Amino acid sequence: MAATSTAQCAKCEKGCGILTCDRCLEKFCRGCFNDHRQGLSKQLDNVVYEHDMFKQHLETPNENISHRLLKQIDKWKKDFISKINQLADQYRTVHEDFLDQAKDGNL
């Protein structure tokens, strides 16, 4: 005489729960077990995808940040060149005035 299964399927609640999921330890009928396994497979695929995207994000420098930093460096360069030019013009004028006074004998 064949033994009948009295365990219920965790999903459809029929009295034919013949397979047990090692992960959640619930019993399923064959059809629900396959659906459950497919759902777990999709979850794993999502975790792997998110892992890959996160890893790529960490390994690839952010172009926006890089672009902003390069623009900031260019701005600093222009500002410093402008200040150097101003000081050079200022000291050139002072030096020319000094030379003119020396020529005129006012020193």
Your description of this structure?
This is B box-type domain-containing protein. This protein is mainly α. It folds into two domains: 1-60, no CATH class; 65-107. It is built from two helices and two strands; from the N terminus they run E-E-H-H. Strand 1 (19-20) and strand 2 form a beta hairpin. The N and C termini lie far apart (129 Å). Mean pLDDT is 86; it is low at 1-5.
Integer tally of domains: 2
Rg over C-alpha atoms, rounded to the nearest angstrom = 39 Å
Which range does the strand content fall in? Answer: under 5%
Shape: rod-shaped
- Portion in helices: 55-70%
Determine the mean pLDDT: 86
Strand order of the largest sheet: 1-2
Number of helices: 2
Distance between the termini: 129 Å
Layout of helices and strands, plus pairs?
Layout: E1 19-20, E2 27-28, H1 30-59, H2 63-104
Antiparallel strand pairs: 1-2
Comma- or semicolon-separated keywords:
2 domains, single chain, mainly alpha, 107 residues, B box-type domain-containing protein
